[in-house]
Design a protein that fits this description.
The complex is a heterodimer. By secondary structure, chain A is an all-beta fold. Chain A is built from no helices and 9 strands. In chain A, the strands form 2 sheets. In chain A, strands 1, 3, 4, 7, 8 and 9 form a 6-stranded mixed β-sheet that branches. Chain A has a 3-stranded antiparallel β-sheet with strand order 2-6-5, with no helix packed on it. Chain A starts with 8 loop residues before the first strand and ends with a strand. Chain B is an all-beta fold. Chain B is 0% helix and 51% strand. In chain B, strands 2, 4, 5, 6, 9, 10 and 11 form a 7-stranded mixed β-sheet that branches. Chain B has a 4-stranded antiparallel β-sheet with strand order 1-3-8-7, with no helix packed on it. In chain B, strand 5 and strand 6 form a beta hairpin. Chain B is globular. The termini of chain B are far apart. Classes of the chains: A mainly beta, B mainly beta. Chains A and B meet through strand 7 and strand 8 of A and strand 5 of B.
Chain lengths: 110, 119
């Protein structure tokens, strides 16, 4: 199972919006609405930010939103804040009952 | 509050095995599946497998078939991941993460266990 494709880095100024893409295949992203997004700060465990494409867990800011079109899912962070600077990973359930992760995107707040 | 507390860092020689534990608290242990994932230094996340809430059924990623064993002890609310035939490529941070039945998301994670394989 090949890793999902994400841009290596995305940057934005405070207050701006950024979008991170996550491209897979019909066997993962395109075939299921079980796409999740995780935020990881350096030296920390990942944190669930979005599940089932567009749902936010309790306690996650509504500045984070998710969507999907075909084989590509997206995470949008609006009103960018310094604390959003981190690595972000998408993940999808797959047709072989496994999970595949994205290559990861480093978000930098300028 | 939900907590997943993993065992401490390990240093192993090539060819050896390692067993990492993950002790759960703050929720009904038998209602959640547990996954194991790993992250090599500077790299992305890799799913290793799942032990279902029953504690008896497992499913492993193809990359680890034959080399990984996941077990569960309901009495101590602890799950274990044992990886054998270690090589330097297995040097990574290993995480446990829970999943509520058929929700396909990892909502709580352990703090991670660093396994270093070096001769």
């Amino acid at each position: 199972q090949s890793a999902l494709t994400q841009p290596a880095s995305v940057s934005g100024s405070p207050g701006q919006s950024i979008t991170i893409s996550c491209t897979g295949t019909r066997s993962d992203v395109g075939g299921y609405n079980y796409v999740s997004w995780y935020q990881q700060h350096p030296g920390k465990a990942p944190k669930l930010m979005i599940y089932e494409v567009s749902n936010r867990p309790s306690g996650v800011s509504n500045r984070f939103s998710g969507s999907k079109s075909g084989n590509t899912a997206s995470l949008t962070i609006s009103g960018l804040q310094a604390e959003d600077e981190a690595d972000y990973y998408c993940s999808s359930f797959t047709s072989t009952y496994s999970y595949v992760f994205g290559t990861g995107t480093k978000v930098t707040v300028l | 509050q939900v907590q997943l507390v993993q065992s401490g860092a390990e240093v192993k020689k090539p060819g050896a095995s390692v067993k990492v534990s993950c002790k759960a608290s703050g929720y009904t242990f038998t209602s959640y599946h547990m996954h194991w994932l790993r992250q090599a230094p500077g790299q992305g996340l890799e799913w290793m497998g799942i032990i279902f809430s029953s504690g008896t059924k497992t499913r492993y990623a193809q990359n680890f078939q034959g080399r990984v064993t996941m077990t569960s002890d309901t009495s101590t609310r602890t799950v274990y991941m044992e990886l054998s035939s270690l090589s330097s490529e297995d040097t990574a941070m290993y995480y446990c993460a829970r999943e509520y039945d058929a929700t396909y998301r990892f909502d709580y994670w352990g703090q991670g266990t660093l396994v270093t394989v070096s001769s």
